[in-house]
Write a structure and sequence with these properties.
Number of strands: 16
CATH class of the largest domain: Mainly Beta
Shape: globular
Strand order of the largest sheet: 1-2-3-4
Strand content: 25-35%
Distance between the termini: 59 Å
CATH topology of the largest domain: PH-domain like
Number of domains: 3
Order of helices and strands: EEEHEEEHEHEEEHEEEHEEEHHH
Helix content: 25-40%
Structural class: alpha+beta
Largest sheet: 4 strands, antiparallel
């Protein structure tokens, strides 16, 4: 089409076979959008296009990607808030007629494959190297290796005993990302041998329900050396989700087996009281050092006590 449609927080540039979404860098732009900067989406990656009234005198043009087409949405597994969906373009209501025109143009470009899941990722993942700070460690990814370096103030004794971890992408089967905006967020790497043991009749892993997918979870994330946990401002969406998407895309590219991805955990086993006591001691150290506020200290302490 060769046209440009400017909205709030983003501009869509329409090319012959794809749309280039450029996100603004303004202070009101969601930080996830600022982190992504821009994304090129082939029309073949889309399943549908909708136009609906938005909030406070706006309309929303929504290009819905096919399942399996975008590693970012695959990693998010339905956990992104509406305002953080990179496929929603919000425009002033007076531009509704123009938005309707582009919605019709996009729909005309959808082929018969639009109703089927994508067989491969069609949207490029954020590029490595990447890193972010979680509550209990620093996560890094250079394109082939994922590393976790533990913090003494947050990591459990189980992680300290295991030591810092390095995971070659070729040895991973998938990832699990639970949003830091949930009660307890985390990023877990799923090693291939865990999946292989389960398939071969080994110890049965716990199944984490949600979104039509399951994931492998043998232990709580704060006890698992293949996981980093979020909380208290660590592991925000705009840092941890692009990281998870980059790892997932690399895993999918290097492996031919299906990749387990995450859904939000529902419930879970109660933790060891000794471990909770240790976490509370770490929390007290952070509070005494002035790294957390009185309100944050009280809230997290109440969460930990509720797990007893």
């Amino acid at each position: 089409m060769g046209d440009v449609l400017a909205g709030i927080h983003a501009t869509w540039e329409f090319d012959t076979d794809s749309v280039l979404i450029r996100f603004e860098r303004g202070i009101r732009t969601p930080r996830l959008f600022q982190s992504l900067r821009e994304r090129r989406v082939p029309y073949a990656a889309l399943s549908s296009v909708t136009l609906a009234p938005g909030k406070r005198g706006t309309v929303v043009l929504h290009a819905v990607p096919r399942p399996g087409a975008d590693p970012l949405l695959e990693a998010a597994a339905g956990q992104l808030k509406e305002g953080h969906d990179p496929y929603r373009l919000v425009l002033p209501a007076e531009r509704g007629t123009l938005a309707e025109y582009y919605a019709d143009e996009l729909r005309a470009l959808l082929g018969p494959e639009a109703t089927r899941p994508a067989e491969r990722f069609m949207v490029t993942a954020p590029e490595a190297p990447m890193h972010f700070k979680a509550y209990d460690g620093r996560a890094g990814f250079d394109g082939t290796l994922v590393s976790f370096r533990w913090f003494w103030t947050g990591a459990s004794s189980a992680k300290w005993k295991a030591g810092d971890q390095t995971f070659p992408v070729a040895e991973l089967a998938g990832i699990e990302w639970c949003s830091p905006e949930a009660f307890e967020g985390y990023l877990r790497l799923v090693p291939r041998d865990v999946v292989a043991d389960s398939a071969a009749g080994g110890p049965a892993p716990a199944q984490v329900p949600g979104a039509g997918q399951s994931s492998v979870a043998r232990v709580q994330p704060d006890q698992d050396p293949a996981s980093v946990v979020f909380g208290m401002g660590y592991g925000p969406v705009h840092e941890s989700l692009p990281f998870a998407a980059a790892v997932l895309e690399s895993v999918r590219r290097t492996q031919s087996v299906p990749v387990p991805t995450a859904a939000v955990p529902v419930g879970g086993a109660r933790r060891d009281p000794a471990d909770i006591a240790e976490r509370m001691r770490h929390l007290g150290d952070l509070h005494q050092a002035g790294l957390v506020t009185d309100a944050e200290y009280s809230a997290k302490k109440a969460e930990l006590l509720a797990e007893l």
